[in-house]
Design goal:
Radius of gyration: 21 Å
Number of strands: 21
Number of helices: 12
Strand order of the largest sheet: 2-1-11-10-12-13-14-15-16
Structural class: alpha/beta
Shape: globular
CATH topology of the largest domain: Rossmann fold
Strand content: 15-25%
Length: 398
C-alpha cells in the first residue's frame, strides 16, 4: 500500500480516516476505537483547544503515560494547528516545570500518576490556563472525557503548512537544561516516505505501540501505525510479561522496541512458551545492542528484524539495517544499516573533512528529516545545523 506523497501529517490522517473509517484504530485496556470515532474525538479535542483560545502554534503539553487519549490529543493538535509537547514523565518536578515553562504551554493534559507533581508545581506555571485530568478523579482539574465530549465534533477545517511545527520533544542534553526540538509537517511527511515500501506495514494488521509518547520512537511508531491503517494495541508502560501475552493473544504482527526491551523479552521465562507465529517484524533502535542479543532474538522470536539509527533532531530514523543483514554470517551485526531514502550521510573529522571508510569521526546528515531548530535557542540551532547538515555529536564510521 502506497501512502500519498507531499501531504501534511494532518492531510495524511484525513486520508486515513476516509479510507478505513470502520476499522479499529486502536485498543487500550478494554477500549476499542474505530478510525471514524478517532476522527470525531480528535475533532472534539481540536474544537476544545480552539474554544480555550489556543491560536495556531500554541503549545499543548501532555504529561502522562501512553494511552489512546495521547493520540487523540496529538491528532487534535494537528487539526487545530497547535503543537503537542511530550513531557518526559521520568523527569523530576523542577525539570517538568522547566519544560512546561520553556515551551510556554497553555494547556496541560496530565495522567493520574502525575497529579501530585502538578499539584506541587502549578503555582510556578504562569502560562498554563487549563489543566485536564486524563484519568479523571481530581477535585480541581476537569476530567478528560467530560471535557472532550462537551465539544463540537465537526472538523474545524484549519489547515497547516509544511513548515508548521506539529510536535515539540525535549532532548535530555548531557549538559544544562533539555532543549525543545521543533518537528514540522514536512519532517513527518519525509519520515513516512522514508519507510514507505521498506517497512512492511499492512492495513488492518495488529501493531503494538509500547514505547513512551514523549520519545520520538514512541510517537513515530504510533503515527506510522495509524497512517498505514493498522489496528494499534497501546500499552501504558513496558511490561515484558504483558507484551509476550499480547503478542500471542492479540496476534501482534509488528512492534518497535529499544534493545533493552528485546533483552527483557527474550530473557523472560514465558518467552520459551510464547507463540510468536503472528509476529512478522520488529524494528529496534535508540541505543546500541549486543550481537548475542540479536542472535538470541532471531532464534526465539523467529521474525524479521530492522535496526534503525537516528535522533529526535532527525525525526527519528535516518538509517536502517534490513533483515537479511541480521544474518550473523554477513558480518554486519555491529552496523546500523544504510541511509534511508532522501538522507545524505557523512563522517567528518574535527576540521570538517570527509573521512575514509573505517575512520571514526562525527556523523552528520542532511535531509528533510532534520528539525526546524531548537525552540527559542537560535545559537544552539546554528551550532547544530550548518549549511543544511545536522551535526549529531555521535561518533561513527562507514
Amino acid at each position: 500500500m502506497k501512502i500519498p506523497e507531499n501531504k501534511t501529517l494532518q492531510e495524511l490522517f484525513e486520508w486515513r480516516f476516509s479510507r478505513t473509517p470502520d476499522s479499529v484504530a486502536h485498543k487500550f485496556l478494554d477500549r476499542e476505537t474505530t478510525y471514524k470515532e478517532l476522527n470525531n474525538y480528535s475533532n472534539q479535542v481540536a474544537n476544545g483547544l480552539i474554544e480555550l483560545g489556543c491560536k495556531p502554534d500554541t503549545r499543548i503539553a501532555y504529561y502522562g503515560k501512553n494511552s489512546d487519549f495521547f493520540f487523540e490529543v496529538l491528532i487534535g493538535t494537528l487539526k487545530s494547528n497547535t503543537v503537542t509537547v511530550g513531557v518526559n514523565w521520568r523527569l523530576a518536578p523542577p525539570e517538568v516545570s522547566y519544560v512546561l515553562n520553556d515551551s510556554e504551554s497553555e494547556v496541560l493534559f496530565v495522567g493520574a500518576d502525575f497529579y501530585p507533581v502538578i499539584d506541587q508545581i502549578l503555582e510556578d506555571l504562569p502560562k498554563i490556563k487549563k489543566v485536564v485530568a486524563i484519568d479523571g478523579d481530581h477535585e480541581n482539574y476537569q476530567d478528560y472525557i467530560s471535557w472532550r465530549n462537551s465539544q463540537n465534533s465537526a472538523n474545524p477545517e484549519i489547515k497547516s503548512s509544511p513548515n508548521d511545527d506539529i510536535l515539540q520533544l525535549y532532548t535530555s542534553g548531557t549538559t544544562g537544561h533539555p532543549k525543545g526540538v521543533q518537528l514540522t509537517n514536512e519532517n513527518f511527511a519525509a519520515a513516512n516516505e522514508s519507510i514507505d515500501g521498506i517497512v512492511p506495514f499492512e492495513e488492518g494488521s495488529t501493531n503494538l505501540v509500547c514505547m513512551p509518547g514523549y520519545h520520538v520512537a514512541g510517537t513515530n511508531w504510533g503515527i506510522w501505525g495509524y497512517i498505514f491503517g493498522c489496528r494499534n494495541i497501546i500499552i501504558a508502560d513496558i511490561d515484558p510479561g504483558l507484551i509476550l501475552q499480547l503478542i500471542e493473544d492479540e496476534k501482534i504482527k509488528s512492534s518497535l522496541f529499544v534493545p533493552a526491551v528485546i533483552l527483557f523479552l527474550i530473557s523472560h521465562p514465558d518467552s520459551i512458551t510464547t507463540d510468536f507465529s503472528s509476529l512478522e517484524f520488529v524494528v529496534y533502535g535508540a541505543s546500541p545492542i549486543a550481537e548475542s542479543t540479536i542472535v538470541k532474538a532471531r532464534e526465539i522470536m523467529k521474525c524479521d528484524l530492522y535496526q534503525v539509527y537516528g535522533l529526535t533532531e532527525t525525526t527519528g530514523a535516518i538509517t536502517m539495517m534490513m533483515p537479511d543483514d541480521h544474518n550473523p554470517e554477513r558480518g554486519k551485526l555491529r552496523s546500523c544499516g544504510k541511509a534511508l531514502k532522501g538522507v545524505e550521510l557523512k563522517v567528518i573529522d574535527d576540521d570538517g573533512n570527509d573521512l575514509e571508510t573505517g575512520e571514526i569521526g562525527e556523523v552528520i546528515s542532511k535531509s528533510k528529516l532534520n528539525m526546524k531548530g531548537y525552540w527559542n535557542k537560535p545559537d544552539a540551532t546554528k551550532e547544530s545545523i550548518v549549511d543544511g547538515w545536522f551535526y549529531s555529536g555521535d561518533a561513527g564510521f562507514f
